[in-house]
């Protein structure tokens, strides 16, 4: 939900980055770090509930909710975290020194009016990781099974002040923190970074509109069946039909309303294969 389309999108990166091994992990096949957490239930029906929690349909196996909400008993629960930008009710967690500045003013994501966090310096990344790490701890204590880190692609909106390497360095620290708390870690969007993110130890991916933008292969090539695909109802219905035909028996797919409204609200849409 956080990363609506409309911002500049980079082409897929062809070159492979150096493999980074996380603490407590060992190198697996093709440079992918073996995860210390349980297997992601790829193929289960997902419900993406960032607009507000509600009881999921009986046959839904994966529920994604904001970290301020409680997990759903008896399902695989993913905890959403805005890890690279400041959301509209998160300013109190962030010191001004952790925001990315240009000419003394915060650099803003124009789609969401969110200030970007400054991942360009190792010391600043450590402080950001302390804040997000506390949220990760809270997700574990609440009973979530996994975390999803949004806005990995914030560097694309930084005017060149941040790089993919800056954000991946922070991502590696967050993945390690999640694994240390027994949580699987999910990459959010950023098709151009899938191979490099996977090598950091990410366990699964959450992708918005990959059918619409013809980039689903980047995620399934890196993560296999461990992918949640969300298509949106303000795009053609055919996107869901095509996604289900191509991947519906392998990965987790849902079509939602753009605002991710709770069930019963006017405009709520939740459709599956």
UniProtKB/TrEMBL annotation:
InterPro entries with a match to the protein in the record: Aldolase_TIM (IPR013785), GH (IPR017853), GH114_TIM-barrel (IPR004352)
This protein's UniProt keywords: Signal
UniProt keyword Phosphoprotein, yes or no: no
Matches recorded under Pfam families: Glyco_hydro_114
Domain (Glycoside-hydrolase family GH114 TIM-barrel): residue spans on this chain: 47-260
Cleavable signal peptide: 1-29
Keyword Hydrolase applies: no
Domain of life of the organism encoding this protein: Bacteria
Matching PROSITE patterns: PROKAR_LIPOPROTEIN
Protein name: Glycoside-hydrolase family GH114 TIM-barrel domain-containing protein
